[in-house]
Predict the structure.
Amino acid sequence: MRRLTFSLIAALSASLARADSPPPGFARLSDVAPDIVQDMRYAGANNFTDAPVPGYGAPQCWLRTEAAKALAAAQQDARAQGVSLVVYDCYRPQRAVSAFVDWSRNPDQRTKAAHYPHLNKSALFPEGYIAEHSTHSTGLAVDIGVKGWDFGTPFDFFDPSSWTKAKTSKTARAHRDALVALMRRHGFENYPREWWHFTYKGADGAPSYDVEIK
């Protein structure tokens, strides 16, 4: 009986561990690059929806292992230059993407001034600021900045002024160009309409997931 009880406990523990784990082939960024700051906006209310987003059960960055290792190398590069990366979003469960679609249909406009002052909510998808099928859900995309740097606009400011090549201050231009160059050296390509969004090369054909982040 005691042996059976221990076996049941072990099986339950293993099951719980699997439930809290990233999908196969993924890694926790904290295990690969623990010194990268994780300011995971969608796990709290500091985002364009003004609420925690479904699927973000913990403020953790998960990425496919190859992308996480490449980001760790980018952090080493940044550290050599005396700065440090900060991530705002990494793997995004598909249920979160669906929640963004629902949010766009809600008449509530409380975050308009802070996040999309010159657009209607309904335009955010066709304008390319939010995607119904996001590369974030593959674990190969990351939203990122550099701690203490001015990029001209905040993260998730949906406006042409956030386009990577948009006219901005001399300081912000230098910072945007430096971030793009840094990330490119380590295999990431920038999305031109968001200075913060980068995708690790090889995203084509990668499967999407809907595993809750815990």
